[in-house]
């Protein structure tokens, strides 16, 4: 499935700002499930963009604007080809999770991180779900996927970036990044490696998707989870939509949690107040309803979202 992506971020300031330095993570990656065909970054005011690949394998674009400006626009244009990965056939026993080589390879995805520091209630729920699922890893992961999907209700704007995952679990409301953090925390709390994934879900679903013609839609960025299965590699699951990750998901980056994949961060000299507008437009050869039919997977209505003077911080969610 081929997707043309246009991702526009705009910062507006009440007074001129200067010395804006920014770090962007918006480039879809190439892996076994998708291929990046083209990618371009441009800014207004114009700037030189320097790129590198970070520790997690994500392309990072760095740019700065020294001239005074009251508006900063960052435009990303990309074309991606995705495919289905086929069914998961491995069925390892839970004991395989304790294999020293497996643990060593996935240690960073087994420990708590700033957004996934679980506490007693969350861990107890995860242990109950995993134990009741039987003695195989896939069964335990599916049980935790269902637990994360049903433990909270999607409510747009009900949380903020950085809210403690235990508070999200207690309040029982959240957005896609909360579903992803909750599932990551549940998996890690019982010894299953899991990582946070950022990307796009291009299907034109739900009240937030504004269809713009038969083959395009205005959507938001999305988050899901990948879990390490011994002998099979990483398995993508989307707890927000209660489905397996498929050809409709376009992956940008993965990491321990949101902090490792935040799309745009920066600092600037200027007034505290600013306005942020983000627009993601996806064009595909099929519209949302046709994509659902072709994918052949369960696809319920999407539930996605997705400083001070002197040196100020700005962040795109």
Describe the structure.
With 317 residues, this protein is α+β, with helices and mostly antiparallel strands. It has two domains: 136 residues, Immunoglobulin-like (Sandwich), CATH 2.60.40.2250; 151 residues, C8orf32 fold (Roll). The protein is 20% helix and 38% strand. The chain contains six helices and 17 strands. The strands form three sheets. Strands 1, 2, 3, 4, 5, 9, 10, 15, 16 and 17 form a ten-stranded antiparallel β-sheet that branches. A five-stranded antiparallel β-sheet has the order 13-12-11-8-14, covered by helices on one side. Helix 2 crosses helix 3. The longest helix has 15 residues. It is globular and about 60 Å long. It starts with a strand and ends with a strand.
What order do the helices and strands follow? EEEEEHHHEHEHEEEEEEEEEHE
Q: What is the overall pLDDT average?
A: 87
How many β-strand stretches?
Answer: 17
How many discrete structural domains?
2
Text of the CATH class of the largest domain: Alpha Beta
Unreliable stretches (pLDDT < 50, length at least 5) are 205-214, 286-313
Strand residue percentage: 35-45%
User: In one word, what is the shape?
Assistant: globular
CATH topology of the largest domain: C8orf32 fold
What percent of residues adopt helix (DSSP H or I)? 10-25%
- Separation of termini? 26 Å
Tell me the number of helical segments per DSSP (H or I, 4 or more residues long).
6
Structural class: alpha+beta
- The second-level CATH architecture of the largest domain is Roll
Sheet bearing the most strands, described? 10 strands, antiparallel
Q: Which value, in Å, is the CA radius of gyration?
A: 20 Å
